[in-house]
Design goal:
By secondary structure, the chain is α/β, with parallel strands linked by helices. It has one domain: TIM Barrel (Alpha-Beta Barrel), CATH 3.20.20.70. It contains twelve helices and ten strands.
Length: about 300
Amino acid sequence: MELTRDNLKGSMVALVTPFRHGKVDERSLKRLLDFQLSGGTDVIVPCGTTGEASTLSYEEHRGVMSFVVDYVRGRVPVICGAGSNSTEEALDLVRHAKKSGADGVLVVTPYYNRPTQEGLYRHYEFLAKKVNIPIILYNVPSRTGVSIAPETVARLAKLPNIIGIKEASGSLEQASRIVAACNLALISGEDSLTLPLLSIGATGVISVVANVVPKQVHEMVEAYLSGSVGRAKKLHHELFSLSKILFIETNPIPAKTALALMGMISGELRLPLCEMGTENRKKLVQLLKQRNLLRR
C-alpha cells in the first residue's frame, strides 16, 4: 500500500531498539515486531527518538531499517526514522530507506544547529526532491531546539511526497494552525495528547505507549476514527497513567524498562542514557502490576 496524505492513519509504534551486550538484539527485535503485529499496530516506525537512533552507528541504523522491512514483509507499512542534523547524512539514510523497501521516512527537524525557517524549508525540500519516497516531517522542539512554523509546514505541503507531520510540540494551537494551513496528515507525537489532537483533525499517533500495550492504543485510535468517540474517550483515560509514567524519565528509558519487566527485552540502554532511578522504577513496577503487565 502506497502511503498518502489520505491513508496515513492509525496507531504507529515508535519502536524501541533492543540491545544485548552492546549490540542490536535481533532476536528480541523479532519478538517486539511479532508483539506489535499481533496487537493490531497499523504502522511500524523504527529508528526514531524512541529507537535511540542518535546512538546507533550508521551501519546499525541502516541495518535495523533493513531488518524491520524484511521481517514485516509488507504486512503493515514501515516508516523508518531517517533524520539527522546534517542534510547530507539525512539524505544517505533516506536513500537507504528507499533502497530497503520502506514505505516512508520520518525526518526530524535538524537538531543542535538550530536552522532558520528558511533553512528548515531547504533541508526538507532537498530531501524531497532527491528521493521519491513519502516523507513525514517530525517536529519535537523539546529535543531539537527548533520548531517548524505552521507557515513553513504549509510551504512544504506543496511538495507532493511530503505527506504528513508528526507534531510533538505539545501545543494544540500549533497543531490547529497546521490543520488550517494545509492538507498534510497530522500525526500525534505525544501519547497523552492523542485524543485532543484527533479531535482537531489528527489521523493517528506515533506512539511510545504502543510499545507496551499495542492493542489498547490501536483500539483507541480506531474507535475515534470510526466515530465511537465515547469508547475512545474511555480508552484515553485508561491509557493516561501509562502515558505519563512512560515519560517520568527521558524516553525511552521507562519504555525499555517496562518491556524488560514484561520479559520482552533485556532493557539495555546506551550511554548517555542509563537505568531508571530507584523511586521512579518502583512507580513503574507498581503501575505495571496494577495492569497485569509484569512477566509471570
